[in-house]
């Protein structure tokens, strides 16, 4: 390149250099004045009001580094976290031992060091404080029920077939001894020297804590006999019919027969409404339930008597048996009405003989 071509540019370069120098000085002047105003609230001025010496200018460059150093300072507490680990709660939680150590943790170290044996003795004592009261002892077996029934009684009954008003006299014998009972009813229809018909009903069994529990019932009519034997658990009964057939029948309620049911009520005068029974009547068993009971003054041809009335019905509400117990005659039967397949039969007491004595 020739000198003539280069000379024209020299003045322009000098002007640019001068402008750059002046601009740089202006920028530094503005930066220094702004920084001083920002630090006026932090640094104090001297007594004479003069600004800090020029040496401060070197520190003005350092503030970015000084500001950067406080920023990581908050992270300094992070190393202090290990200091919290030795505290008892985290140590106890990290311990693989069972629950008892955390319970003992609140205690003072001195107590833990001086009385380790005492803590071991106190630990088993805690469940005793939380123990519930012991359950009441099981009730003792109930003794056999007692009733005002006499040990022996003989009752004269008037039997009436309601279909034709035919009447016949019968006698019922009641005995109980040594926890057992026996009831026998016998009747016979005669014309001159001829027997027109006869009936014998017999029930025998045990007197349990719940009253009478029949074991054997015999229904004999005109020399034709049906025998019913009840199982000990009263779940079923074996029936031997008059024609020799045998069958087993399940019992839905308490075992009973026409004779035992009447006397069982004397042991259970407050029986609940709805109490179920499986009643044996001749060669059949039928379910009955108590539907009503009340006190009633019974009026008959032989006078009146204070009685307790019980009404038993089949599940469909039909048939059944009604019983009146004579309260003034030691709860012996005063009247019995049976509604069977052959019609209704009524038995009314006309005379009582108690223990060898007679009571009308």
What are the key terms here?
alpha+beta; 360 residues; disordered N terminus; 16-stranded mixed β-sheet
SSE blueprint:
Blueprint (H helix, E strand, L loop, with lengths): L2 H4 L3 H30 L16 H6 L1 H6 L12 H4 L3 H7 L5 H5 L4 H6 L1 H7 L2 H6 L21 E10 L4 E12 L2 E12 L2 E15 L2 E11 L2 E7 L5 E5 L5 E5 L3 E4 H10 L8 E6 L2 E17 L2 E11 L6 E7 L5 E9 L2 E12 L2 E3 L1
Characterization of the model:
By secondary structure, the protein is an alpha+beta fold. The protein is built from eleven helices and 16 strands. It has helices spanning 3-6, 10-39, 56-61, 63-68, 81-84, 88-94, 100-104, 109-114, 116-122, 125-130, 258-267, and strands spanning 152-161, 166-177, 180-191, 194-208, 211-221, 224-230, 236-240, 246-250, 254-257, 276-281, 284-300, 303-313, 320-326, 332-340, 343-354, 357-359. It has a 16-stranded mixed sheet that branches. A hairpin with a 6-residue loop joins strand 12 (303-313) and strand 13. It starts with a helix and ends with a strand. Residues 1-8, 29-56, 63-69, 90-97 and 115-123 have low confidence and may be disordered.
SS field, number of helical segments? 11
What's the helical proportion of residues?
25-40%
**Strand fraction:** 35-45%
Straight-line distance between termini: 170 Å
SSE run: HHHHHHHHHHEEEEEEEEEHEEEEEEE
Say how many strands there are.
16
Principal-axes shape call: elongated
Rg, alpha carbons: 57 Å
- Sheet with the most strands, sense and barrel status: 16 strands, mixed
Pick out the low-confidence regions: 1-8, 29-56, 63-69, 90-97, 115-123
Class by SSE composition: alpha+beta
Average pLDDT, all residues: 74
